[in-house]
Amino acid sequence: MDTSNKKVAGEMYFTANPNSEHHYQNFDFDLLGEHLHFTTDSGVFSKSTVDFGTRVMLDSLKKTTFIAGKVLDLGAGYGPVGVAVAKAFKREVDMVDVNERALELARKNAEQNHVSKLVNVFQSDVYDNISDKYALILVNPPIRAGKNVVTAMLQDASKHLLSGGKLIAVLQKKQGAPSAQKNMTIAFGNARTIYKNKGYYILESIYVPKTNI
Predict the structure, then answer these.
(1) What is the CATH number of domain 24-206?
(2) Cβ atoms of residues 53 and 180 within 8 Å
(3) Where does 39-174 have alpha helices with state H?
(4) Packed helices 80-89 and 100-112: angle between N→C axes, nearest 10 degrees
């Protein structure tokens, strides 16, 4: 994940219950051809604008296809990815994060962008509360949360995808994109770079269940 705005009022944005003083902001942003309005707050990632890594990841969706089914926005924050995908593709989206303040904002942003009926917002520490299988998992990993968290987000995704489903992740080259691609290859048996922009790599793996012959 882009490390801009990585620390807010002495606490990290992946804290479950941020206690920093509220400082609400509002801004408009165009994503996936949709004009969206967002409300953000202190204690969440990239509160002043949609971070560049997220923009690149969403841009990459124009360069790939994905099967029918629900989408998981893992580490949703205040919701730019999930809201944009629901709005542009009319897909059901589960938006999850460990940060309760971010989840409150994600619900508000889904409502004010008129996609509340398509999204389900709930707390989950990585995949702890995930029970569904998805057509697509999108993740902008919180690098500052540590290697173990990032690796779990990438490698355990295969357990939560439909056959033919995809994991798409964004990482900077200098923050471990090559290592992440190796981890995805270990878990999926495949991983490729589908898009690059200014040092950000968009990595894609496809889940193909193993068959017993």
Answers:
(1) 3.40.50.150
(2) no
(3) 52-60, 80-89, 100-112, 147-155
(4) 30
Residue type, 53: G
**Domain ranges in the chain?**
24-206
CA distance 43 to 40: 9
What parts of the chain have a pLDDT lower than 70? 1-20, 212-213
Angle at 74 between CA 204 and CA 60, to 5 degrees: 35
CA dihedral sign of residues 177, 178, 179, 185: positive
pTM recorded for the entire structure? 0.89
pLDDT reported for residue 1: 45
Of 200, 160, 198, nearest in space to 180 by CA = 200
